[in-house]
Amino acid sequence: MDYLKEFEKLVESQVERVKEMKKEQDFIDYKNLDKIIIGIIGGDGIGPAITLQAQRVLEFLLKDEIQLGKIELRTIEGCTIENRAKVNKAIPDDVLAEIKKCHVLLKGPTTTPRKGDQWANVESANVSMRKELDLFANVRPVKVPELGIDWTFFRENTEDLYALGSQGMNINEDVAFDFKVISTPGTQRIARIAFEYAKNNGKKKVTVVTKANIVKTTDGKFLDTCMEIAKEYPDIEVDDWYIDIMTAKLIDEKRRTQFQVMVLPNLYGDILTDEAAEFQGGVGTAGSANIGKRYAMFEAIHGSAPRMVEEGRDIYADPSSIIRAGGMLLSHIGYQDRAEKLYTALDICSETEKKIALTGRKDGATGEQFADYIMSTL
Ligand code: IPM
Ligand code: MG
């Protein structure tokens, strides 16, 4: 393999991508649409079972709008690992075409193949969807009121080690390369959305997380660019931390309550948000919003749990994370009040009242019973 030629191609593709990004467009305004199309993607493993329950809850909350034709819920088939492996693509072309006809998406977990398992080692459907739809902001809130934790993470979602994560090179038997890409406009847009969020939600501080002392060029650019954007928001304090000490400070009881809004490159964001979600009861409880200017996708942050399906337990899987993601979707398209109601119902059903318990097994409730409980609480 002529790796210099290959590298040249990668560089060109990235320069091209960033050029496209600079053709600034505005965020879509859902108020101006005759109809909002919500695509429902079941995914793999327990995905279809839990996503169906989230869909039922959304249908319940949006009954009037659906009847009036102002909102359509559209099921998108075929985004399964079997299908993806068969056509050897992260997302099959026909599925992607269907996805692109929607405005927002609710997505169940999709299996990410890894070397050595039974599937072709295609790129993660998640990562591919984020890139294809340019969903540049991965927004992950973590709240634990009794510990004084109220964090919102803005993880850049299209660049960093993920941009070319499936296009590394083995230069020879002994030497392997992957590539890390950070761009100025890519960082500006994630920084801006984080500061805007802080401004509009009464937050006083934004924390930039990098490893710019070591990864000087790319993380250096990320940090410098965030600091430039910070100047546009003189009322908001900004500080910067390195990712290693940041992971430590999240477990420092005195320090951690001072963090409010975090902005960080893709991989650090991936890692730190799993750690953060653990304080709230684990990745099973968190929802995640992937926001772009034209599209937005909402998902659970846990995996597809294929073992539960093999053991016939998918109907007992906990749908609360994807239902919460459905709440984030509602608030994104302008139904903030209904989203709040849904969060309250989730808290009542899984914490304060807890009339039924999900155990993931026959001795617990089914996801369907849990969704019914949510709807009766609403
Ligand atoms: C996440 C997940 C994904 C990621 C995987 C499933 C590709 O860990 O959403 O955090 O690495 O981004
Ligand atoms: Mg992750």
Question: Would you write up a description of this structure?
Answer:
The chain has 378 residues and is α/β, with parallel strands linked by helices. It has 2 domains: 23-135 and 292-378, Isopropylmalate Dehydrogenase (3-Layer(aba) Sandwich); 143-280, Isopropylmalate Dehydrogenase. The chain is built from 15 helices and 12 strands. A hairpin with a 4-residue loop joins β11 (287-291) and β12. α2 (47-61) crosses α13 and α14 (336-352) packs across α15. Bound molecules: 3-isopropylmalic acid and magnesium ion.
Our count of helices gives 15
Number of separate domains: 2
What kind of sheet is the major sheet? 10 strands, mixed
Q: Assign a percent range to the helix content.
A: 40-55%
Index terms:
43% helix, binds magnesium ion, Isopropylmalate Dehydrogenase, alpha/beta, 12 strands, two-stranded antiparallel sheet, binds 3-isopropylmalic acid
How is this fold's topology laid out?
Elements: H1 3-22, E1 36-41, H2 47-61, H3 63-67, E2 71-76, H4 81-87, H5 93-99, E3 104-107, H6 125-132, E4 137-144, E5 149-156, E6 169-170, E7 176-177, H7 184-200, E8 205-210, H8 218-230, E9 237-242, H9 243-249, H10 253-256, E10 261-264, H11 266-278, E11 287-291, E12 296-300, H12 306-310, H13 320-332, H14 336-352, H15 367-377
Parallel strand pairs: 1-2, 1-3, 3-12, 5-10, 8-9, 8-10
Antiparallel strand pairs: 4-5, 4-11, 6-7, 11-12
The structure holds 3-isopropylmalic acid and magnesium ion.
